[in-house]
Structure formats: structure tokens, C-alpha cells
Amino acid sequence: MDLHDWPGHGLTDAELDVAYNVRGKAGEELFGHHMRRYRALSDEAVDGLPGHRGVVYDEASGEALDVWGVEAGRLRPVFVFVHGGYWRALSRADSAFMARMLHGHGVATVVPDYTLAPAATLEEIVRQVRASVAWVHRHGPGHGLDPGRIVVGGSSAGGHLTGMTMVGGWQEALGLPADVVKAAMPFSGLFDIRPLVRVYVNEWLGLDGARAARLSPELLPAPRRCPAVVAVAADDGDGFLEQSRRFQRHWGPAAELMVVPDRDHFDVVLDLADETSAVSRALLGLIRAL
User: Fold this and answer.
1) What is the separation of C-alpha 50 from the centre of its chain, rounded to a whole number of angstroms?
2) Most Cβ neighbours (<10 Å): which of 24, 96, 121, 251?
3) In the chain, how long is the greatest CA-to-CA distance?
4) pLDDT at residue number 4
5) HEC profile of 183-241
6) With bands split at pLDDT 50, 70 and 90, how would you rate the model's confidence at 23?
7) Which residues form a coiled coil (predicted)?
8) Which helix (H) or strand (E) holds 25?
9) Is the residue at 165 inside a domain?
């Protein structure tokens, strides 16, 4: 890959800021509305749902995850959902809105927290998310989860972190099989984060070009390419639309690009609360194919 061919190459810093400032595009009123829906829909989804709350998955950081939608005596396929928030906001409490929908289709949901930037570097955040996948593989059976049917997804920054579980080169050190992630569904993800070195997001990431390249799923080896649906909103930020299109081409025939009409960067993933939505059908299709 041409290392000078990165998303937005040739744009000014101001133009890159616009391309990646989806909160600014939405406006504060709509952004606040979406954030309230994340928490309200998540609270509604897990109310009365069987599960395990606040399980520490990483002793080094003390970070925890929630398990939802399990059933006694059965191991269910599991959707590990990694929240967004540009690596510095949101939590697992805002990110379980799909749990009831998936429970109704025989699928469990795992939602991990991770230490937010700038308290943690992006390298450390990636390590923690991979550790959450390792926890599911090692300890899943004791919590109703099938370690052989793990699907990872996430939105925005969570889409980037999903990508960092899809690539190779990290599983062996954690004692995991190369195919521990059986399928993936990133939403509005960031897969080549070199442009962020030049935008406002770097105020809390503190990246340089070399570190950004090492943390970019599109630039990392992926000897096994798991089935994936790369989802993005039709009314997303220009930077996110370009990133999703490029990553789907990079991932090749194993990936499908899904551009969701009438949705923006923040509400496209909320469609996972609705079993009739196109994204829910796509996710369930990935899981049923395992």
C-alpha cells in the first residue's frame, strides 16, 4: 500500500477537521438527543434481562464488562460490542441497546469498558479490548458464552477497535486461536487513523504518524480475513464514509459494505435495537453463518 495514499490526503487541516467532526455536523441539540437515546435504549434493553454485570476482564487495568442475554445450561453465540466516543467518552452503560433484540434470537451480548483517553494511550485501549475478547474465549463457558462463536462489532472509535481485533499478530501472545474472532461488524469505523494526527482528535490521542500507522487496521497484516459487514450511515461524516469504503475494498470478498440510508453517524448503530432493521438482519446473518 502506498503510505502517501491515506484517507483525505491532499486536504487542508481545516478540511480534515470538518470531515471528521461528526459532532459538529450533527449540532449540539441533535448530538445530545442521540446520547440520551443510547443510555435510555440500553437501560430498557437490559431491564430484567439475565446476565452478569461488572465482571472484571483485565486485572492490569481493572476494567469490567457486562454480559447480557444468557440462558442457563446453554452456550450462546456472543456479540462483543465496543463503544465509540472518539476513545474518550461513553461507557458500557450506554452501549447495550442491542442486547434484548439479540437475546430474542438466541445470542448473548458482551459490552466491555476500556480506560478512556487521555488517561490511557490508544495502544493501551487496543490491548484492553483484545483482552476482553480473550476473556470471552477463556471464561465464556462459565458465563453462558460459546467461545467458538465470537462476533465483534463497534461504532466509530469502537469500529476502529473492532478492526484491531480483526487483524492478525496479537492472538498468539494471548494464547488464542488465530480465528478467535469469527466475524465482525464495524459501524462508521476508522481504519487508517493517520489523518487524525492532523485534526482536533489528536489533542487527547497525542499520536504521531508512525504510531498512527501501527494502530491502523487497514495497514496491518491480516492473513485470515473473517466475514465482515462494514456499515456506515449515508449521512455520516465524509471522512467516515471514505474510511468504510476503503476498508471494505481492502478486506476484499470477505466483507460487504452496507451504506444505511436516512441515518447519521450517531443513530445508525441504534438500529441494532430493532430486529427488523437492515443492520440487525445483517448482524444476525453473520452469526447464523458461524
Assistant:
1) 23
2) 96
3) 57
4) 55
5) EEEEECCCCCCHHHHHCCCHHHHCCCHHHHHHCCHHHCCCCCCCCEEEEEEEECCHHHH
6) confident
7) none
8) helix 22-26
9) yes
Asked if the structure places residue 175 within a domain, the reply is yes
Residue at 209 is within a domain: yes
| Helix-then-strand count for the chain, H and E | 10, 8
Q: For position 13, what pLDDT does the model report? A: 78
User: Which amino acid type is present at position 46?
Assistant: V
C-alpha cell at 275: 430486529
Give 163's pLDDT tier (boundaries 50, 70, 90): very high
Q: pTM score > 0.85 for this model? A: yes
CA distances to 161, 195, 200 from 86, rounded to whole Å, are 11, 14, 11
Q: Which residues pair with 185 in a beta bridge?
A: 153
pLDDT at 184 over 90: yes
Q: Would 222 be classed as within a structural domain?
A: yes
Q: Is 157 exposed, middle or buried (0-12, 13-18, 19+ CB in 10 A)?
A: buried
Residue labelled with grid coordinates 485501549? 125
Instruction: Work out how many domains the chain is built from and give that number.
Output: 1
**pLDDT surpasses 70 at 10:** yes
Q: Is the pLDDT of residue 145 over 90?
A: yes
Q: What CATH code is carried by the domain that includes residue 270?
A: 3.40.50.1820
Residue 272's domain spans which residues? 13-288
What integer pLDDT is reported at residue 26 of this predicted model?
Answer: 83
Q: Is pLDDT of 6 > 80? A: no
Q: The cell 483484545 sits on which residue?
A: 130
Task: Compute the Cα dihedral for 96, 101, 102, 106 and give only its sign.
Answer: positive
